[in-house]
Amino acid sequence: MEERAEHKDVTVKRVGGYLHKVIPIMDRSGRVLSYVLRPFMVEFRPRDLFQIIVGASVLAIPVAFTEEAWELGMQLPLNNVLILGGLSLLIIACFVYFHTYRFNFKGHEFNYVKRVFATYFVSLAVVGILLTIIEKCPWGVDNILAVKRIIIVAFPATMSAAISDTLK
After folding, report:
1. What is the pLDDT of residue 148?
2. Domain ranges in the chain?
3. Which of 45, 51, 109, 119 is the most buried (most CB within 10 A)?
4. How far is CA 134 from the centre of its chain?
């Protein structure tokens, strides 16, 4: 409720190149005493991309080095792995919506979609590069297994990428 009440007198201004909500602090009579700036994180900027890369690495590194993840890639049917990938995308979409865009969705739909897909596909790329470096993606020999391992390891990596993207 506080967030909605806040929207009456809040303005959005660019400060130092970034959007911020300018929230007036008023006394009981309605006189403005001061202002508070809060980051308004609806734009997708290069710094967000780097936060996603670091965030994806946080969980991709420990999971990618486990034999359990490699074995799971061999044992799980492709349909189950694709469902896991879809679930990951759905969780990211819900998290990003409720954390950042819930009250600011109108007019920012493109940035929302861009942030969700960037989080997912950058995480996939980070995991793919990592698994390729440690030679657990058998590209050219068994591409399906390589993709399955990437999707499996990317599940936790996408979650940490989404969370790190919220840090400002």
Report:
1. 96
2. 2-39, 46-165
3. 119
4. 25
